[in-house]
Amino acid sequence: MRWATAKRLFLLAVLVAVTLAAMRCTVPERTGLTSPGSKFRDVLAPVQSGLTWLGRQGRYIISLPVSMVGAAARSQALEQEVKRLESEKIQFNEYLIENQRLAALLDYKNVMAGNYNFVIASVIGRDPGNWFGTITLNRGSGEGIKENMSVLTPEGLVGRVIAVSASTCEVLLITDPRSGVGSLVQDTRAPGIVEGVAGAAGIARMIHIPNNALVEAGQAVVTSGQGSLFPKGIPVGRINNVQNEPSGLFLSAELSPFADLYNLEEVMIVTFVQPGTNGLHAGG
Amino acid sequence: MQFILYPLLLGVIIILQSTVLENVAIAGIKPDLVMLVVVFGSFFRGTRTGAFLGFTGGIVEDLFSGNYIGLNALAKMAAGYLAGAAGGRLYRENIPIATVVTFFTSLAGLMANYLLLLYLNITIDPLHALFSVALPVAAYTALLVPFVFRSIFRYIQVLSREL
Fold it and tell me: Which of A207, A218, B55, B87 has most Cβ atoms within 10 angstroms of its Cβ?
């Protein structure tokens, strides 16, 4: 073997040995870096960082025109996705609110199950004009609905059924000028008739209250059940103010219905009343 | 063509009025879109056509509700006639004028409606009738004029061309 070849072999062996030793010293399981390694890394860190940044900028600049090709389409797709998700969110909120409303109705139905039989119905239409107050419900004679059945919400009286078809029925609201409900002032038991003012007005009037009766604003009015189509004791409304009727023999009172008649969505139709049923708590 | 379009338009409007328009009702008051169409049509076409449009619009509305048939027909016929008379004397292609005419003719139509209710023994306190129904409905209906003037004006021009 020539001297030069031996020297090369020796250097190779040294290199291999050093490398093997270095490998031993830099086993990854070890928590800390070796002293030379850490120093080396510290020195290189800013350079590495700078080069990495430069590399990214370069890649960004080069790839920008390529990425712009599909950007508009992607942006449009994302916008549509956002709109779809927003719409879904609104729909979920709607379901949540509907769920809360139906739960309240179910609660009320369970509480009153001993006294009344109910059919729950949704409002599908209203009188197109402003003079009358009628609503159309999605229940009809097919579900056992008949004329003059009372319609309620958990808050209070809504009205009564005046016309029935196979799958719908029309309800006369208590605010309709054609409506009349035999009623009592809950505290003083003063009788009177609650009649509507105008469909759009959203208020009702209790008329023919004896003028010696103690009636004042804030008192609750409930159905009297006497000679009336409505079961006794259903909350009707709260008195806003009291006036003398022009004849001077009676008082009249303006009242706000307990049921929110402007925003009705689901209501209950009373299909059966247990004999002797008496009284709900006014005010919902 | 208009003999098909007008009842079709009225049908769509009445369905909208009994469903969707509840959502734009302010304190229970919703605009009277049939009155708006009647008043507009009459304003541009004169008293005779106005009375006809009003009667037709009202009768479709009455048939839809199924009771007191003729109540809206007569009230809207009066409004249509008045709007037609106003259209013959005023400059028609002006939004503020159309708004004011819509307000007053709607008010007149609604008060005619009130008188017909009295005739039917449906008693409504006159102050409530005026301040809770007639004035707010007329105002709300008139407020829509600036938004729909151009579209309805174009529709009426198309109809005139057909005639």
Answer: B87
Q: How far apart are CA A107 and CA A99, in angstroms?
A: 12
Using CB atoms, which residue from B28, B30, B113 is nearest to A201?
B28
pLDDT (tens digit per residue) in A156-196: 899 999 988 888 899 999 999 888 899 989 888 889 999 98
Residue B99 has pLDDT above 80, yes or no: yes
Q: Report whether pLDDT(B106) > 90.
A: yes
Q: Which domain holds residue B15?
A: 2-22+29-162
ipTM of the complex: 0.81
Selected for mutation to probe chain B from A94, A124, A126, A131 (highest B CB count within 10 Å) is A131
Cross-chain residue pair A198–B122, CB shorter than 8 Å: no
Scanning B65-94 for CB atoms below 8 A from A yields 65-66, 72
Q: Compare CB distances from A200 to B19, B114, B132 and report the shortest one's residue.
A: B132
- Give B2→chain A minimum CA distance, Å: 23
Rounded alpha-carbon distances, angstroms, from residue A18 to A24, A40, B131 = 10, 17, 103
Categorize the per-residue pLDDT at A30 as very low, low, confident or very high, splitting at 50, 70 and 90: very low
The class that CATH gives domain A112-273 is mainly beta
Tell me which residue has tokens 């009343």: A273
Q: Which segments of A2-115 are extended strands (E)?
A: none
For residue A262, how many other CB atoms are within 10 A of its CB? 15
- The minimum CA-CA distance between A73 and chain B, rounded to whole Å, is 35
Pairing of strands A266-273, A150-153: antiparallel
Q: Which of B43, B74, B31 is nearest to B160 (CA)?
A: B43
| The total number of structural domains that make up chain B | 1
Residue B136 with chain A: CB contacts under 8 Å: 200
Mean pLDDT of the A131-155 span? 89
- Dihedral sign, CA of A209, A212, A218, A222? negative
Average per-residue pLDDT for chain B: 85
Q: Give the CATH number of the domain where residue B152 resides.
A: 1.10.1760
Say what the pTM is. Answer: 0.70
The domain locations on chain A are 112-273
pLDDT at B79: 93
Nearest to B107 by CA among B124, B71, B83: B83
* A169: CB partners within 8 A, 6+ apart: A121, A136, A137, A139, A140, A145, A161, A163, A269
Is-contact B58 B32, C-beta < 8 A? no
Q: Which chain A residues are closer than 8 Å to B17 by Cβ?
A: 128
Element (H, E) at A223: strand A220-223
